[in-house]
Amino acid sequence: MIEYSVAVLATGEAKSICALVRDLARKWPREKALSICFAITSAASQFEDLVKGQAAPAALAYKLSALVAADILAIEALGRHPATGQDLLHFWRRVDPYFFEI
């Protein structure tokens, strides 16, 4: 997940980076949803270390990680412990389509 995320950040394409959360949930539906947050945050940190002076992709990744963490908290408040990538996809279809629309 982390390597995939770093590769997406390296494209520098905002559209691809915005789709990253959704893509990770689809590629790894059975993984804990917090693994998605961890992968994106770790990738952003690695990207910052590798590419000095290009803060925009990492900043967007940190923002997306924070937003998906809020969705995970909402899912777990509804009783799904631990939330998975599949739970995120279901939540986005039924409750908050943000990650399908960006």
Major beta sheet, specifics? none
Q: What is the total tally of β strands?
A: 0
Give the end-to-end Cα distance, rounded to a whole number of Å.
Answer: 20 Å
Q: Specify Rg, calculated over alpha carbons.
A: 13 Å
Number of domains: 1
Molecular shape: elongated
Strand fraction: under 5%
Quaternary structure annotation: single chain
The computed structural class is mainly alpha
* Helix fraction bin: over 70%
How would you spell out the order of helices and strands?
A: HHHHHH
Average pLDDT metric: 94
Low-pLDDT segments, ≥5 res: none
Tally of alpha and pi helices: 6
Walk me through this protein's architecture.
- With about 100 residues, the protein is mostly helical.
- The protein has one domain.
- It is built from 6 helices and no strands.
- It is elongated and about 40 Å long.
- The mean pLDDT is about 95.
How would you briefly describe this protein structure?
By secondary structure, the chain is mainly alpha-helical. It has helices at residues 2-11, 14-27, 33-50, 55-77, 85-94, 98-101. Helices cover 77% and strands 0% of the residues.
Write the layout of secondary structure elements.
Elements: H1 2-11, H2 14-27, H3 33-50, H4 55-77, H5 85-94, H6 98-101
Helix pairs in contact: 1-2, 1-3, 2-3, 2-4, 2-5, 3-4
What labels would you give this structure?
single chain; 6 helices
